[in-house]
Amino acid sequence: MRFPTYYLSHGGGPWPYMSGEFRQRFAALETFLQALPRAWPATPEAIVMVSGHWEEHDFAVMANPSPPMIYDYGGFPEAMYHIRYPAPGSPEVARRIESLIRQAGLAAHLDSARGFDHGTYAILAVTHPKGDVPVVQVAIRADYDPASHLALGRALAPLRDEGVLLIGSGSSYHNFHPRDARAESRGFDAWLEETLVAVHPAERSERLLHWTNAPFARAAHPREDHFIPLLVSVGAAEREPAELLYREADLLGMAWTVSSYGFGVN
């Protein structure tokens, strides 16, 4: 009973906790996320989230049994700074993750203080609104090295056969000061779909290692914090096919085209 892996857009800030126009902007994303658990073989024992909003020098693993909240956004109503995602952590799963990372020859440490950032709860508040599945976050490395993050995914692959779901959380386009967001996001999105879906998995990994050669790469990701979680999801399902699961053009009325993918879904 092997779980798939995912690279998902998490939208903007605390949108699932809001109402009105701002939440409506994410209606298509919400519908997609609500349906996502139907593709899983069972309810996961735990969920591992690799969020683009947590960076460390080395790979860090959340080990807090009751993770606090991190309100890593600004300009929202006061109530959005008091929301709570109630899922527990799992020190046991955290120790397993740290062990797997170290066995792969990568530096890692446990972090007993880290809480959930919105890259985690903006997705899970929709897929698991009751917070009834333990969640462990894993930090990306601040050097954004593609090879190291593919290696992290490979190291975490055994978890998929242990009842654990792995999600990379970011955005396939992330530039708030574009010259031409429509052309940039669509151009990069076309390359990304070809790379993930159309080519052989071995070539897929090689292309991702050199992703900055893609059309509009740096226009799509001036900083690759929201792209790097993809490498982890791919590494954990490196020999398995990818599937485009969700695409939306003109997200937030900003002419962004963003996509989400699953690996080993079928």
What does it look like?
With 266 residues, the protein is an alpha/beta fold. The chain has a single domain, classed as Protocatechuate 4,5-dioxygenase, Chain B (3-Layer(aba) Sandwich), CATH 3.40.830.10. Helices cover 32% and strands 21% of the residues. The protein contains nine helices and eight strands. It has helices at residues 21-24, 27-35, 91-103, 118-127, 146-156, 181-198, 201-209, 217-220, 228-235; strands spanning 5-9, 46-56, 59-62, 108-111, 135-141, 164-170, 242-251, 256-263. The chain has a six-stranded mixed β-sheet with strand order 5-2-6-1-8-7, sandwiched between helices. Helix 3 (91-103) links the parallel strand 3 and strand 4. Helix 5 runs parallel beside helix 9 (228-235). The radius of gyration is 17 Å and the shape is globular.
Topology:
Blueprint: E1 5-9, H1 21-24, H2 27-35, E2 46-56, E3 59-62, H3 91-103, E4 108-111, H4 118-127, E5 135-141, H5 146-156, E6 164-170, H6 181-198, H7 201-209, H8 217-220, H9 228-235, E7 242-251, E8 256-263
Helix pairs in contact: 5-9
Shape: globular
Number of strands: 8
Strand content: 15-25%
Measured on Cα atoms, how large is the radius of gyration? 17 Å
Distance between the termini: 12 Å
- Total domains, how many? 1
Average pLDDT over all residues? 95
Q: Mind telling me the CATH superfamily name?
A: LigB-like
Largest sheet: 6 strands, mixed
Give the strand order, joined by hyphens, for the main sheet.
5-2-6-1-8-7
